Every structure is written in C-alpha cells, then in structure tokens.
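We read letters as residues; the integers encode the fold. Take this protein.
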Amino acid sequence: MSVILVFLLVIAGIAGWWLSHQRLMTKPWLEQSMAGDFVALDRSALPTAKIGLGVFLAVVGCLFALFTSAYFMRMALSDWRPLPIPPLLWLNTGVLVLSSIAIQCASLAARKGQVDMVRLGLTTAGLTALVFLIGQLVAWRELSADGYFLASNPANSFFYLLTGMHGLHILGGLVGLGRTSVGAWNGAQPQRLRLSVELCAMYWHFLLFVWLAIFALLAGWASTLIDICRGLLT
C-alpha cells in the first residue's frame, strides 16, 4: 500500500502543478479586463480535452501503481530470482527522453505558430518512439536467447508484463501522434493543431515518467526510494 500511496502522491503533485497552469482555478468575476478580452479567453474546449486526458492518465497511473505494488509483494517470496537488466535498456531510455524533448519542442513551436518546426518535432518524436519500441523488442530477444523466458520465473513475468504494457501505451500514443501529424501536414487550424500537439505532449511526458519509474523498479533502485519515502511518512 505504501508503494501505491507514494505513486499517487507523485501523480497528485503533477496534477496540482498542471492545474495551477490552467485557467481552471481563476475567478473570472474578479478579473478586470476589457470586454473584448473575454472573447479571447473562451477556451472551454482546451481545458475540457486536457481534463479528459488527465483523467485517463490518472487511471493508467493507478494501473501501473497496482502492478508495482504486486511486484513488491511478489518479490518478497523465496522463489523470486531477479533477471539482469539488458544494457540496451539504457539506450532505449535515452531515446525515449529524446522523443519527449522533441514533442515538447513541437508544442512550443505550435504556440508560436511555427508549423515547420511542429512538423519536425512530431516526426522526430514519432521516429524515436518507434526506435524505442524496436529496442524493447530487441531486449526481449536478448533475454529469451539467454534463457530468461516469460514463465521461467515470476521476476521474468513481471519484466515482460511491465515493459509490454508500457509498449502498448506507446503504440496507442503513436496513433494519436499520427493523427496530429496528418493535421500538421494538411494545414489544420492553428488552435486545433496547438491543442492536439499539447495533448500528445502531455501523454508523452507521462509515459516517460512511467518508464523511468519502471526502469528504476526493474533495476532495484525503487526499493531504496520507497524505504526513504516510508521513513518520511512515518
């Protein structure tokens, strides 16, 4: 339960930071401005779409938190034999970081109306995400070649489960990224394109955070962090 609590506290902190950057907490009846300015502030579709994505990401975060809790409970049994982390995962992590940086650059370019930079950022993010997925499959093949099969040990099963679930969410993100890229190349309206890119960026940054947590868990670093957090909470 402490693992879930720590994970949910992190998610709540991220959600609080995000809400502080939206207009959801403002009091329009206290704001003084010209009447024409309120027309420009009519952005109901923007926060609605982001709230919907935020709720979905919260559900996904809880799912991975439950997997993490099950991981810690199962590893306490005597038949648990952790498998070695393939060195390729370090490269894959770097590639996913580059993908997140690329889509953040695309988001900044969309705010400035720089369509060419948006296209470049989206393309780079998509290609690096594909490289990440290919790298994950190669890591799976390396482990299988060394005898670390899915059903050989509970630790192996959790490795394939966690990395596989994360990979499926990356694939889902690529679908949304592809739709956004099509809009960018077909001359979508600036506001609509900006919204789509920002939603993709939110999703991508979340998946990067989840992967870093999974990587730390599989590498054994998460246990030390959980002990520190447990000590702070008690």
